[in-house]
Amino acid sequence: MKITVIYHSHSGKTRTIVEKIHRQLDADLIEVVPNQQYSTLSAVTKGCYRALTGTADIITPDQISLDETDLVVLACPVWAGKPSPVMNGALKALSGGGGTRAFLLVTCNDAKSGDQAIALLKSRASDAGLVPVGEGILDKQAVISDQAIVPLIERIRSAGAV
Ligand SMILES: Cc1cc2nc3c(=O)[nH]c(=O)nc-3n(C[C@H](O)[C@H](O)[C@H](O)COP(=O)(O)O)c2cc1C
Questions:
Q1: How far apart are the C-alpha atoms of 147 and 87, rounded to whole Å?
Q2: 75-91 average pLDDT score
Q3: How far is the CA of 50 from the centre of ligand 1 (A)?
Q4: For the domain that residue 144 is a member of, what is the CATH number?
Q5: 31: domain range?
Q6: Model pTM?
Q7: Which helix (H) or strand (E) element contains residue 42?
Q8: Which residues does a 6 A CB cutoff place in the pocket of ligand 1?
Q9: What distance in angstroms lies between residue 87's CA and the mean position of ligand 1's atoms?
Q10: Per-residue b or e along 35-58, where b marks 16 or more CB atoms closer than 10 Å to that residue's CB
Q11: Which of 61, 87, 96, 137 could form a disulfide with 76 if both were Cys (CB 3.0 to 4.6 A apart)?
Q12: Averaged over 31-35, what is the pLDDT?
């Protein structure tokens, strides 16, 4: 079973989580970064505007093949209650993912915001031809707690094993 984790992380929290997933599940890790990097200020202004409008950032890598992948994990921070525009860019860059199972993961300060963002990420993943099979929301506390991360990794393992 091949698991590919595609992630965006602006300030490092999502990266910390996906690195654990990578180590525990021997998953491939693909970091997507915006070609125009965000500063702290431009993330709040331009980044939130782009998240609110559902805009897809131009990203590197600009093509991501899922040809050999059994389960893809899409992980990103919540910006303005939505998936980050960098993750929208990642969804646009996917190829060969038709019918691939997807586990959706967001990190956020507040789980309510995470609920809203995960619903959108799920529908965008479906629009991209993926099949959502699981989801996780890590809020400010959960993101630093092994109590939340250990069961999350088990849920991803099960989603991949189906
Ligand atoms: C521009 C910006 C907007 C954010 N908007 C929200 C939000 O609407 N709701 C929320 O719960 N957290 C919000 N956050 C907090 C991040 O989602 C949270 O800290 C996340 O874990 C950061 O992940 P990262 O370190 O991988 O970038 C925002 C952070 C930034 C930088």
A1: 26
A2: 98
A3: 14
A4: 3.40.50.360
A5: 3-161
A6: 0.97
A7: helix 40-42
A8: 9-15, 43-44, 47-48, 77-81, 107-110, 113, 143
A9: 13
A10: eeebeeeebeebbbebbeeeebbe
A11: 87
A12: 98
